[in-house]
Amino acid sequence: MLNSAVADVAVALIYVFVLVSVMVSALNEIVAGLLKQRAKALWHGIGELVLSTKLRDAFYAHPLIKSLAPPTSWMLLERLTGPSYIPRRTFALTILDVLKHPQAPLQQAHRALRDTAGALANPTPPSAAALAAMAVTLGAAGAALPATATGTALKRDLAALQAALAAPGATAASLLPAVESAARSLATGVTGFLTEGATPHSADLATILRILGENAAGDVERLRAAIEEWFDTGMDRVSGWYKRWTQCWQFGFGLVLAVALNVNVVSIANDLWINIPLRNAIVGDAVSFAKEPPTAGGAAPLTRLDQAEVRLRKSQFDVGWSRWPTREDWTRIPGWLLTALGASFGAPFWFDLLNKFVQLRAGGPKPDGKKAAA
Question: CA 93: distance to chain centroid?
Answer without folding.
Answer: 17
